[in-house]
Amino acid sequence: MITTRPETFDAIVVGSGAGGGFAAMGLAEAGMRVLLLERGRRFEPRRDFPMNHPDWELRSRAFRDTEGPAGHDASLVLEDGASLDPRYAHLRSSSARDEEGKRSHRAPFRYERVFGLGGTTLHYQGEAHRFSDHAFRPASLYGLGVDWPVSYAELAPYYELAEQVLGVAGDPANPFKPPRGPFPTPAHKLSYASQRIAAGASKLGWALLPNSLALPTRSIDGRPPCQRSGGCAQGCIFSAKSSVDLTAIRRAEGTGRIQVLTESRVLTLEMGPDGKIDGIVYRRANGDYRARSRVVLLATGAVETPRLLLASRSASQPNGIANSSGLVGQFFMETLLAEITVRFDQRIDAYKGPPIDSRIWNFSRPARDGAARSGYVLGVSGTLGGFHGPMSHALLLPGLGRAHKDAMRSHFGTLVTLFGIAEQEPRAGNRVTLADSKDPDGIPLARVQSAHSQTDLLALDAMLTRVKELGQAAGAVEVLRQATTYDVPAASHIGGTCRMGVDSRASVVSAYGRSHDVPNLFIADASVLPGQGAGDSPSLSIQALALRTAEHIVTRARRREL
Amino acid sequence: MLPLRAGRRAFLGSLLWFSLLWRRPNPALAQSTAVGPLDPSAREILEAVVDAIVPRDQDPGALDAGVPGRILAHLSTHPEALKVYQAGLEVVDRLARQSGASSFRALDGQERERILSSLSSAPDDSREAGGLFLARVRRDVLAFYWGSAVGQGVVGYRPPLSGYLDYANPPSETRRSRP
Lengths: 562, 179
Hints:
The complex is a heterodimer of chains A (562) and B (179).
Chain A: E1 2-14, H1 18-29, E2 34-37, H2 45-48, H3 94-99, H4 138-142, H5 152-166, E3 169-170, E4 185-186, H6 192-203, E5 208-210, H7 248-254, E6 258-261, E7 265-271, E8 277-284, E9 287-298, H8 301-311, E10 333-343, E11 358-360, E12 367-369, E13 371-373, E14 376-381, H9 390-396, H10 401-411, E15 415-422, E16 431-438, E17 444-449, H11 454-474, E18 478-484, E19 490-495, E20 521-523, H12 539-558
Chain B: H1 8-21, H2 40-53, H3 67-75, H4 79-98, H5 109-117, H6 124-146, H7 149-154
Helix pairs in contact in B: 2-5, 3-6, 4-6
């Protein structure tokens, strides 16, 4: 039985992460009455996050046990990926090489999701990047991917507003980025580990620059500045990291015009006879509900949004909602990642400081290494690769007994991970589809298919070469491990499954995130991204686009065009 | 190059396991229990195994950190894990006796390490039990030891309860000793 709520909202926002939270803020602050639905719960940093305790490594991560036993993702079909190109076997990850040396296909795609108010910003590392100007025109400039229907110049004011809300810390003097004004808060000083790597980068003629981070260096909105705990991924116990629950959603709640319902999972979208979304059905612990609004905005991410649209099929919409183009789920982009963990002969304590406090943008423009390859950005991290506190180090070092204990004493605090992230070429064959099997709520599981193009493999190869050069130049004495997405996929930056565009036959939504098919349906998450910003992190772009979409909705609503 | 066998996925697997273990922190897990799920003989072998995985040297070992008690507390509520431990401890002691010792406990540290390291390649009838046990007990002991204040102190690690405002400075000397 479904209980239909009596009121009609101006807008329903589904999902409270980077896109949903900012869209809800934009709508509520413009006077709209908003219902925000979030599948997970609201977290209290001083109560819920493990780093409140000295033995934090022995405690479960707050975000990993929200679905299925032991955090197992019950929403995906786990199956081997595409076959591996043997010409690039040198890209194999250490773990796969040692444990699964005969693997002929990529490991199953796994989706590191976060259910909770704030979405993935609860565990992200705070990277707040404006995409470079060239990242909006990859087809015109480099013959790669597709041009965006929005330019950097058009998005810049929304980037600026998002940065203000987040209190982004950064240095405007980045020669690889478009000119800009000061950041809301000053850049973080480089960590000691990054200072060591910067010296190596300088020898190579590269510039290791302070990262731009939603980790304010000054107090914002009564929250303390970043304490450099390195604990972003476990949940910031200081409430210093500008996750969306503490920023945009808090501002939206301050208007008094938003109802936030956590632990509420949307099951389906219902189409009305007029071709608009007529209602949405969501499930709470005490039953199923139907809510109605003039506008529905989806922001559940690059897998869940197409999953929900495809699963909401009906006799009148046999291919799912908003899918006349057949492109819902297509052009999936995963994360192209190559990383090594290196050891120094001295203690550098890279686990201290913002987790990714520095970046190298020298290679952010696409190039031709024989064939075209996308741009990429290198970075330094004390926590990537699974190394953080002593326990994680101990579990990753081999052996036992005296030798292992000696290795712990000599290795702990001397390791740092160097990595590169590139843009995956968007291709129609890479996609999210529905499986026959269903989850406990009756929604078909998602199947993710993703294979590398030659362009992708060249980018992985280039990044691995560069990070090895960087480690050597910086004086590292040993490479402990390498990991690439050649054989083990990564999902920290995914997108593209409901891409935006001008042509309704070649895209799912407009430049404002509005469905080409359903006039009161909008999307504001990573699924609308036509590209991945040449290796920069997508959160700030998702937030800027969400603000732009919200503004568009308000404008159209005031003109009574919705 | 150090041949690192475990990667990110192994690490995540460990986290998942600990998610199960610590989903609801239990004060009873804090220290050794007087009555445990293993008989006295098996408990003594377990203590020898724990001591072999993180031995006492110039720094405290796993016995000093109370690791056996934490394992026993876990086994008392996890019957499947208990079966793995019981079978593995039997294999360990049998291999020790086959090498001429009266028991695993009677071996010196080097021999204990050798037998533990050989578990994955033990004779066919005990390879599976030995391999499962080795993977599990190694993970348990390393996690309980290096996740504790004792282990953290050995490598000069200070948990980030108050952040690291010294993050940009060269690390100060720690009490870590070099081999």
